[in-house]
Amino acid sequence: MSRILLADDSPQALRLGEQILAGQGIEVVSVTDGAIALRRLNDVSPDLFITDVYLPTKNGFELARYMKAQPEYRDIPIVFAAAPADVFEEQDARNAGADVILRKPFEASTLLGAVQELLEKSGSAKKIGDAPGGNLDRNSIRAAVTLALDSAMPAMIEELTERVVLALSHR
After folding, report:
1. Is the Cα torsion angle 164, 168, 170, 171 positive or negative in sign?
2. How many of the other CB atoms lie within 10 Å of CB of 110?
3. What b/e readout covers 6-15, taking b as 16+ CB neighbours within 10 angstroms?
4. Which of 72, 68, 37 minimizes the C-alpha distance to 55?
5. Cα separation of 114 and 142, whole Å?
6. Which of 8, 69, 70, 152 could form an SS bridge with 13, CB 3.0 to 4.6 Å?
7. Per-residue pLDDT tens over the stretch 88-139
8. Do residues 24 and 143 make contact, with C-beta atoms less than 8 angstroms apart?
9. pTM of the prediction?
């Protein structure tokens, strides 16, 4: 069974990520803080690391640079998950050590495809979906939809606010 360390400061994003990945037979260890992610690296021994770009105490860039500088962690693939409002240069993320950058909201199939590809490249993959219940089920789909809505909500609120302000100013 593959093991993933998942770092995100949104409890909802963690739950959804756990649900999507665990539904495919992947063991997931979740943390909400960059410093805690660093402490958990040794005892978790992840096959892959998924991190939100911006976390409390240590951000994804700091975590990736640290991991790539350590012989015991440098071969662990890293996925950056970025919210639509997260501003950063993707090349800087790659230079820090990100193997894949996923912009939220992403579909469950996009996450699972990236995870599968990285685990295969690193040689620590079981085929996603080979585990019992490996097909996407209703809960996995619900998790993906909720994650997409959660990630898109701030932009939708901003757009609706602008439209209301514009409409009211033209009265």
Report:
1. positive
2. 14
3. bbbebeebbe
4. 37
5. 20
6. 8
7. 888 999 999 999 999 877 788 899 999 999 999 887 655 454 444 444 555 5
8. no
9. 0.73
